Amino acid sequence: MAGTDKNLTAAAAAPNACGHASGHGCAHAQADHNCAGEVPVFNPDALISARGVSVTRGGRDQLIDVNLDINEREIVTLIGPNGAGKSTLVRVLLGLEKPTRGEVHRRTDLRIGYVPQRFDSDVSVPMTVERFLTLGLGRNGGRVEDLLRQVDASSVAQQQLGQLSGGELQRVLLARALLRKPNLLVLDEPAQGVDYSGEADLYNLIGRLRDEAGFGVLLVSHDLHIVMARSDRVVCLNRHVCCSGVPQAVAQHPAYGRLFGPQAARAFGIYRHEHDHHHDLAGMPHPASGDTTDSDSPEGGSAC
Amino acid sequence: MLIFEPFFLRALLAGIGLAIVAAPLGCFVVWQRLAYFGETVAQAGLIGVALGLALHMDVTWGVLVVALLVAALLLWFGRQKLVGLDPVLGLLHHAALAAGVIATSMLDGPPVDLAGFLFGDVFAVSSTDVTIIYVGGAIVLAGILLLWQPLLRLAVHEELAAAEGVKRDRIRAAFIFLLAVTIAVAMKIVGILLVMAFLVVPAVAARPLAGTPERMVLLTALIAVASVVVGLWLSFAFDAPGGPSIVIVMSLVAALSLSWAALGRGSGATR
Q1: ipTM above 0.95?
Q2: B145 three-class SS
Q3: pLDDT confidence of residue A20
Q4: Closest alpha carbon within chain B to A91
Q5: Contact residues on chain A for B161, CB-CB shorter than 8 A
């Protein structure tokens, strides 16, 4: 989406190799990424603006120097393999976890609707879906019915939470998030426990609701095909931001192919194998011998 | 009739008051899977008994102080993510009990009635004890009423509630404080080893029969009060210890209720 990738596009033209804190000497290209330890510049218009976010747990780097903006009305999809730190990043953005380094700036009017991955375990509180939806919100009867119809879950309104299937639970959680009238909707792997066609329906629904209500969306996913077509911007994460841009640009980016294999890349038609670095077994990127040229990077992507 | 002797009425009054106060706490302990946590805090109470006896004050205060300290220690242990809290609790609740037994044995003076503290002595409660139960109980109930909404949201989905702005650390600390107060107050009636059973068993019994959280608390209170009355009567009739008799009656109700749920009849239990 035009104007949403200012930082990344501007910097793609002038990649700068630097030996920053994350310890891998690859060519990072982000406008406000700096090696001199200057004060990070937040994007004041963004709903959420993260700068230099690193998370280290038990001596292991889970996130390395992540910069991310989510703007109004923008659908940002966060993709990456298992263990890439997607959920950790979401938790940091939501304020559930403090980053080891770096900062997250939230706009003062930010109102998050969060759709968590799942319930941690079986729900042991006896409660109907209807009650769950309004819990902590006061009376909102008309909207409840309306929203349950929108997410196609009207039939479960009087059922107990513990009796719902995975897909039903997911839609109920979505309805609860929407009931809060968010300006940012955060969905962590919303398609888990939903079959393939259900997944397409879900993303169509989210896209349609975004068009109507005008909220920003942060979507986390480990799979790609359907997700990416709906996104304004895709951020490919493997502890660091590997590449980022409009879906087509990311699909053509070599880092994307390396992360998800040639199969995934071919699904988007084009795949060029260009090593500027490789990832070791722990997923840490290492530069390949001397070849740090960035000239083939697609628009909106940043070599990493 | 002997059943209207003052000591029996005091026991009845104390037991019923405690049953009502324990009901909402027991429900939250079940919903948040804190039974083992509460067990550890309660068993550390024996150290508090020793402390109270050593300082010549009401043991309730000693139990309260130690329960709060142990709860704080457990929360602190929970901050590390390398070992889950359950094995830590498994370790600590035995250690706490052992430390309590040693501490009471080292006190000067006549030997301490350990059984009385471990299993409670409901027929020995004084009118002061009854007052403590009703005053402490009123404070706990007021606290629960005040925190009901955020506590419920945390119990349903902790991360979701936190992401929506519920101050989870503060609310959880407040709940644990209320739990520690209840444990300290209940200790004289049912003893350190049976306190958590007194909280948890009626809530377990009520769960399959309830469709809303409020109804579950109400049912828990009803089951607990009925168990106190029946248990005390049985204890009197068969000359059995009071606290354990109450817990046995509760457990029978829970067993029936769980069997009912196992047959697929429970509310919201099946998938």
Answers
A1: no
A2: helix
A3: 40
A4: B163
A5: 136
